[in-house]
Amino acid sequence: MNRRLLIFVAACVPGSSSTPFIHLLCMPTWTIISPCEKDYDHPMRMYIFRVMQTVYRMLDSSNEPSSVDEGKHIATLGYAMSQEKPGSPDLSSVVIHFRLSTQSVTQFVVTTSPLQFVDMARNICIPVPCDLAVSVIADIDEFVFARSTSFRELNNPGPVEECDLARRIWKQVQAKRYHRRLLQQEVIGDIIDIACLRTRSPRCSICDSNLIHCNSCQVASCESDNCPGSSEPPLTWCSRHEKEVLCFPCLEEWGCTGEIEKCPACKSWCCTRNMSSCNGHPIDIQLIPGLPGSKSVLPNLIVAYAKSERVHSPKRGCCMKCELPGWRNCNSTLCWSKTICPECASGGVACLCQEVWACDLCAEHSPGVVIRCPRCNRPFCSSCSYIDECQECHRAHLCYDCAEEESDVDDGVMMERPKFVASCGSCQAKVCDRCVSDSAFSCSGCSKRLCTSCRMSLCDDCRQWSGSDDEESETSGDTGALDV
Ligand SMILES: [Zn+2]
Ligand SMILES: [Zn+2]
Ligand SMILES: [Zn+2]
Ligand SMILES: [Zn+2]
Ligand SMILES: [Zn+2]
Ligand SMILES: [Zn+2]
Ligand SMILES: [Zn+2]
Ligand SMILES: [Zn+2]
Q1: Is 1 exposed, middle or buried (0-12, 13-18, 19+ CB in 10 A)?
Q2: Could you tell me the maximum CA-CA distance found in the chain, to the nearest angstrom?
Q3: C-alpha 155 to ligand 2 mean position (Å)
Q4: Which ligand neighbours the alpha carbon of 477 most closely?
């Protein structure tokens, strides 16, 4: 236990009361938690949050914050100096101010000398609970002490620079603690000179490997698993991103909202943002049916998915390297989930060549993903090469089997089928007789016919941006007639 910590424990006697501590000589103050300033990852953020939680629980429980990102409170951290002997002034107390973001004056103050919570409005002081004092507040105090003694020359850094600086300082403190821990564990008793422990070396004093730090609390451990200096349990990091490191206590505290999670398949740790998840099958989508081929069906579908309730809240899958049995990816870019869990995938449809799988909703409503034969209703995709559909209105012809059977039987039904009279000048997708006359379907530069998806990119021939759908082309366009 260090010198400053001992002072805390001594001061932490219940029942001690003194007059409210209001320091006139408050030195720099940093906003650590606030609703507007998105936090710049100040290393004291979680520590200050824990103090805030305790203060509100004890003095104003209806406003106790539930999470650090709640945005209802403002917390600032600062310190006061005192000049008792000649020379540079000493840090006399850490000063933390709390208020609700709707308030303009400080509600509660926490000081370390004397160690107390002050309720400003009611003008009362209460002692700080011992467990908080010896852990969290001692950490904050150690940070502020290190911050106050280093980089004095730095004038008013901005919030981003201040956080960078604070993180560097807190890392050095943690490196120092690491070396101190080795000494306490007597792992290095005889090997290492005490003098070298005072350094804030970023390397292990046993094996000279790099020290690694938890991203949240900055606690240090030796990078090498074999070194007796590596922490137990070891720090965990993402298998793809070496910089995403968390210690076990932080992992537990972050719980399922954490940044690193264990892949259920390969058991390696992985950034949560890189793990698959199923958003839950929409329960009941309200689709206003558009005319066949009307483009308004697409935003409608996205809106319908977004508005619908889901059968479950997002469910975690696995890392990018693994595949979990029964999990699927829907081929529609409009789908309600990037990956789909077995339960939600149960109604999905695979095409004849097995190249394409779509969830039940996208198979039915997302145009062009699954093409069903109007006669036998079998599902196909464009690479099945077994059915033709118009690229514009998505009306499908019969599949090749049905077309053969039907050709010499019923001409009346054939009349309702699309006739393919043109094709896209770029990808050769077919266009039916109804859609061919729409001049907006051609390149505005060279008037070459282009299908919906090819219109999204530059025209191959004239290198012009093909323009939006509602743009009127002056020429009727070369229809690239096709034998049907
Ligand atoms: Zn080591
Ligand atoms: Zn940690
Ligand atoms: Zn995995
Ligand atoms: Zn889908
Ligand atoms: Zn699901
Ligand atoms: Zn068919
Ligand atoms: Zn063109
Ligand atoms: Zn095309």
Answers
A1: exposed
A2: 110
A3: 30
A4: 7
Residue 295 burial (10 A CB sphere; 0-12, 13-18, 19+) = middle
Q: What is the DSSP letter of 234?
A: P
Q: How confident is the model at residue 292 (pLDDT cuts 50, 70, 90)?
A: low
Residue 460 confidence (pLDDT) above 60 = yes
Q: pLDDT band for 122, please (50, 70, 90 cuts).
A: very high
3-state class (DSSP) for residue 93: strand
Confidence of residue 254 (pLDDT cuts 50, 70, 90): low
User: Crossing angle of helices 3-11/138-149, nearest 10°?
Assistant: 140
Cis-peptide into 114, omega within 30 deg:
yes
**Helices (DSSP H) in 185-211: which residue ranges?**
194-197
Q: What is the pLDDT, as a whole number, of residue 450?
A: 78
The phi, psi pair for 169, rounded to 5°, reads -65, -45
pLDDT at 419 over 50: yes
**Do residues 172 and 218 lie in contact, with contact meaning Cβ atoms separated by under 8 Å?**
no
pLDDT > 70? residue 471: no
Residue keyed to tokens 């000494």:
183
How far is ligand 3, taken at its centre, from the CA of residue 280, in Å?
A: 21
Triad 415, 420, 426: Cα angle to 5°: 165
pLDDT, mean of residues 253-259: 60
Q: What is the number of H-type helices and E-type strands within the chain?
A: 12, 20
What is residue 63's three-state secondary structure?
Answer: helix
Instruction: Give the closest ligand to the alpha carbon of residue 391.
Output: 8
Within 288-387, residue ranges assigned H as helices are 297-307, 342-345, 360-365
